Predict the structure.
Amino acid sequence: MNLVFSSTTDLATAIAQRKISAVEALDAHLAQIDSHNEAMNAVVSLDREEARSQAKKADAALARGATPGPLHGVPFTLKDTHETAGMKTTVGFPPFAGYVASHDSPVVVRLKAAGGVLMAKTNVATMLSDWQSNNPLFGRTGNPWNLQRTAGGSSGGAAAAVAAGMTPFDVGTDLQDSIRLPAAFCGVYGLKPTEHRVSLAGAFPNPGGAARSVRLMSCLGPLARSVDDLALIYQIIAGPDGRDTDLAPVPVEAMPKLDLKALRIAFAPSFPGFPVACDISAAVENLARQLQGAGAIVEEAKLPKLDLHDDLAQGGALIGMMMEAAQPEPPEQPTSVSRWFEALARRDKSILAWDQFFNDWDALLCPVAMTTAFPHCEPGAPIKVDGKEQSYWMLPAYGAVFNYSGHPALAMPCGEDRDGLPIGLQLVGKRWSESRLLGIAAAIEAFTGGFRRPPGY
């Protein structure tokens, strides 16, 4: 059993059956971090002593005959944004360099209660504000497929660590493709649930106890190396928690086993006016053909009649309004309440249009991003897509559309491009249907090739 590239599910089973110990699982992952992290810089704030203490307690509990939880003794990392008692949470921002929360966020509480052993945090973009993971505290994260390329952001450290076998899973945040884009760049799976599915309480350091302003479009979700692992972690972290009052009391169901021949899948090699590398659009079309050949009902999508560029602009404006509310001093011309409600009304039109689309389709297959992992660069510098310079700010466009609409979406690896870099495709589904969306991804997984280990790991 290769411990560092075993699935979360297999690790948990092996530990529960006492085929391996929690300490052995932890030590294997710590050794992988020691071997590769200096060059990659994905893992930060490593706490060996506490992790080993918790792993020993997990082994002792099994020896006493305790009933194991679904993650009993499984080591894991978390994106450096979740508040954690006893471990720094910095979001790569110098004023937060020494911040340690007084208690765990609800997501952390649930993962630990399930038996997980937290090892470390993973690197991010400063204040989660870029699609490359680089900050003044910890520096830049490289992509395990090519260290000269970005791992993406803002969950880049998480995606790189999962891909390189440093951790079996992580939990990222996604306000504008920040789980799915790095998952695609690093060749792993990443799930953005429906908005208001997973608690945002404690999802960002808050030393002063300020009112939470980011209440729309942002989501927490898992990154892992298989659909089964996404489903396992999602079931643990989703649902009302007693702290985030926005959460919907919708049942969190188990991932169903679905017959591909009963599925209706729309596909879009690109969106109108959105750039995309030809290798990515070809991967969408090739997978669509394979699924059709396997018996699914597959058609090229007639997308909702929306101005998707305007949706991106409107989503950016909403983020700006939320960020404005988080400032200690209001601007000279603060956003009016009427403008806020006008923005919400505009967003409702997009949500309802996509809801109507998914009345006819089980899922939409499309790109995650306009390119595969690109060379490290200054934020804002043009990005070459098939040799043509494109706007840096279009990097998250395919994913951000579904932050704006709130629909669940996941990234899944689907082969490599001509440079040998992972291609990630996006699967989008109905709101509140994460479990079914995961079931669709599981039915498709055999045709995508799944996770492949980066060369050298």
Summary: The longest strand covers residues 409-416.
